[in-house]
Specification:
Layout lengths: L2 H20 L9 E2 L2 E2 L7 E3 L3 E4 L2 E3 L4 E5 L2 E5 L3 E3 L2 E5 L2 E5 L10 E3 L4 E5 L2 E3 L2 E3 L4 E5 L3 E2 L2 E3 L4 E5 L2 E2 L3 E3 L4 E5 L2 E9 L3 E5 L2 E8 L3 E5 L2 E7 L4 E5 L2 E8 L4 E5 L2 E7 L4 E5 L2 E7 L4 E4 L4 E7 L12 H24 L1
Parallel strand pairs: 3-6, 4-7, 5-8, 6-9, 7-10, 8-11, 9-12, 10-13, 11-14, 12-15, 14-17, 15-18, 16-19, 17-20, 18-21, 19-22, 20-22, 21-23, 22-24, 23-25, 24-26, 25-27, 26-28, 27-29, 28-30, 29-31, 30-32, 31-33, 32-34
Antiparallel strand pairs: 1-2
């Protein structure tokens, strides 16, 4: 290679290598969150080393706090979130003496937002009015309770015990597991996909769209409306109190219909179907029921039901599910 060309290459290489130094010291790399850089400048407080905080740890309305790559311990107090709290790749402990203990020492207050990513929280979380919680990508909490108009988004995460929601809360569960009970009441809206729960309990006009899920036990009552697609109920599902379900391409061990409830079953397998108290059921194509028991008289003749009315009843549930899935993708 000619000497002039070698010299030219060396000059170009030196300029490339020395360019960062010419503009000053290079900025340290930002930590990554799920493959994306965190803009630390957005946060008013960053905690990235093991910290012990005494007393209540309060995130005020205008605060934006990041806890990342560390352990965070609160002693003799609670975590109270009114602003934004982001937790990434961290462990959070709340150590409260028995005499001062509260059942939910982690509060997300009115309009507060908490994002938990690849982290473990060793305390139950309570969401108050209009609060939001995002539990994502391998995160784990023992228990969540959501109040009036609050929102819970759980994706690829674990709730070890219970998920409790009421008063028009919105719940989205995707590729996650709930170890014990999911208790929904008072007009809660649920979308659940590719997840598992031990015991699902609903009451009070709950609306739900559930697909590709495994449920051990379920009791749906008091005006709830659900669409189930490709689910497995391993033990028993009880439908009670004017509740309506649409069951498609699913498998249920024991299904009980009570008190004027209604079930439309299509392309599914039910080992034992029990019907009483003016309940109504319709068996669609490719549905197999091994045993049917009528415990008390008063079943409405399925032939008297207008199929169009069934479609109209299911439409609001399906439309809600579509809207919530779109909102979750945007979030």
């Amino acid at each position: 290679m000619p000497l002039k060309r070698v010299f030219a290459l060396l000059v170009v290489a030196s300029l490339v290598l020395l360019a960062p130094l010419a503009s000053g010291a290079a900025a340290p790399p930002r930590p990554l969150m799920n493959g994306y850089e965190i803009d630390i400048d957005l946060f008013s407080l960053v905690i990235n080393h093991t910290t012990v905080h005494y007393g209540d740890f309060v995130v005020n309305t205008t605060d934006k706090v990041l806890i990342a790559n560390c352990s965070f311990i609160v002693k003799n107090g609670s975590i109270i979130v009114d602003g934004l709290l982001a937790i990434f790749n961290a462990s959070v402990y709340i150590d409260v003496p028995y005499s001062l203990a509260v059942y939910y020492p982690f509060f997300v207050e009115y309009t507060g937002r908490t994002v938990i990513l690849e982290s473990e929280i060793y305390a139950p979380i309570l969401l108050r009015e209009a609060a939001s919680l995002y539990l994502l990508n391998g995160s784990k909490v023992p228990r969540i309770k959501a109040g009036n108009l609050s929102s819970i988004f759980v994706s690829y995460a674990v709730i070890e015990d219970d998920l409790i929601a009421s008063e028009a809360a919105v719940v989205y569960v995707n590729y996650s597991s709930i170890g014990d009970q999911m208790m929904l009441s008072d007009m809660v809206k649920l979308v659940m996909n590719e997840s598992s729960v031990y015991y699902m309990i609903t009451s009070g006009m709950v609306v739900g769209l559930v697909g590709n899920c495994t449920i051990e036990l379920a009791k749906l009552s008091y005006g709830s409306r659900f669409v189930f697609q490709n689910i497995t109920v391993r033990r028993e599902m009880v439908i009670d109190g004017y509740t309506t379900i649409f069951l498609n391409n699913s498998r249920v061990d024991t299904l009980q219909l009570k008190d004027s409830s209604f079930a439309a079953i299509s392309r599914s397998f039910v080992r034992w179907l029990l019907v009483y108290d003016y309940a109504l059921f319709i068996l669609g194509n490719s549905t197999k029921v091994m045993r049917i028991t009528v415990k008390r008289p008063g079943i409405v003749n399925p032939k008297s039901v207008n199929p169009l009315s069934l479609l109209l009843a299911a439409a609001p549930v399906a439309l809600f599910g579509k809207k919530l899935l779109s909102a979750a993708k945007r979030a």
